[in-house]
Amino acid sequence: MEAKQTVFVNEFTNGILDPSKEMLGPLKDGGHIVANTAPGCWGPMITPCLRGGHEVTKPVFVEGAEVGDAIAIRIKSVQVTSMATSSGNDQAVDGRYVGDPFVAVKCPGCGELYPETKIEGTGPEAIRCANCGEDVTPFVFTNGYTMAFDSDRTVGVTVDEAAATHIARNGKSFMATPENSVQNPVVTFGPSDLVGTMARLRPFLGQLGTTPSRPLPDSHNAGDFGQSLIDAPHEYGVTKEGLEDRTDGHMDINRVREGAVLICPVKVEGGGIYIGDMHAMQGNGEIAGHTADVAGIVNLQAIVIKGLTIDGPILLPTLEDLPHLAKPFTTKEKEAAKRVANMYGVSKLEESLPLSFIGTGADLNEATTNGLNRAAKTLGMTPPEVMNRATITGSIEIGRHPGVVTITFLVPVHLLDELSLTDLVRNHYEAIG
Known about the structure:
The chain is α+β, with helices and mostly antiparallel strands and about 425 residues long. The protein is built from eight helices and 20 strands. Helix 5 packs across helix 6 (about 385-390).
């Protein structure tokens, strides 16, 4: 099949990232993906026929991407289309799942696994088993809110019970749910525990990555969420070693937004780029467990990097999102550093550019160790050297609690040369004087 310059995506998985399934495309190396993404988290979480906790796009095959390569994904634009959404803290409902409420929902009435559902009215008991009519949602809110957005999608305001109920009755319309999406709109629950709270929008992609080398539930394609798959009693259980097949596409890092570049590992032929779980905004850590899930339109460019073998993603944030210590040096700063070097007999200053290595694990300590080791392995450094560089020329920041971090620091250019990354990184930050 001839590769395309642009692949338009409006199809979704059933929540499982399965490398044996046919991909969309193929996409030319350097081509664009334009996708209408479905809301993640809460909508899929209350839709038992979805088996991964999210509803991401079908993966796209990229021409020339082979196992052991990497794909640089330029995030050209991220546009929110939802007019409103609901979110909040979750609590699983016992008796309605097998081992994991995100993955294997079981109807408490008829016992059907992954049951189809219907919506009856509004409120937390509105999601019913299509077979027996039993309340089948595996999650409820402990504290929830419904938020409406302005027409420019710059601010949101949480609404009262009356407005939340109005939105709930027209859920798919308010959430702009894509036509091929099967999820139940979370606004159906109509939560209104927060009223009149304002929030700024800064949309980003909670899910962006490549297909893992074994079937994995989409929300569990990460080192923290994936822990619940280890020896799980459902069909998608894995060993601890099997979790290493993940690609960490589910990051919930708020810097994976318009203007950033994400470099992803290729663990199956064609890479299999998938997208989803757009969030309207999120503070570092996503400490509530969830944030404002929205539908949206995304434009990405995919560039194959031959021979760059990495285990997890590497992020090039926007200049604004870089930690202060990791920002490229200005000409004035370089001149000052050169004067100091001359005073102390340092013959050559190190030229460097910033990278953010993603680390994931069961908790933040394990995620930090994972990120440090990934950086060290990729760059040919020792972990202690990475620790020093991240301390004086960068920062470690929480992506998602409990176990996603970014290890950001200035990397010597000669090491980027060896990885064929210098031009990509330099061009990304070329506006710096």
